[in-house]
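QA checklist item 7 of 12: single-chain prediction sanity check.
[x] sequence parsed
[x] length recorded as 131
[x] structure emitted
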Amino acid sequence: MKEIDLYTKAHLVVAAIRILEHKDTVSSSIEKVCQMISFSLEHGNLICKKLGEMGIIEFVEGAYGTMLFVKNHLKIEEIPRGFGESKLEEELKKFQSNKKDLSKKIELFQAEQAEKQKNLFAELEKKLKNK
């Protein structure tokens, strides 16, 4: 199965909730939604939790378990499309950039010190020749 982004997964979940409501004329559970779109229950719970936090779907605890309802499907459009970089990748790139900057500063400092030492020896040699 190819990897899909959160935007597409959100559309799938909302569509599955609506289809199940239409087909069964009752609200749908996470298990039914996951079964319909071929997600594992763990993955479906994770996606539904994210969508619940974003205000896209709503969880209602009832006598027959937790039911899902579409709260505001328009908020799906606020989800960035495609795969964003994870925090770890962002931090790694930032660290590598800082490391490169530090290496450049060290090289510049070493070059300046080598130039100063060269000038100092040239001055000393000039003074020794004059004496």
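[x] summary fact logged: The chain has two domains: 6-78, 85-131.
[ ] second reviewer sign-off
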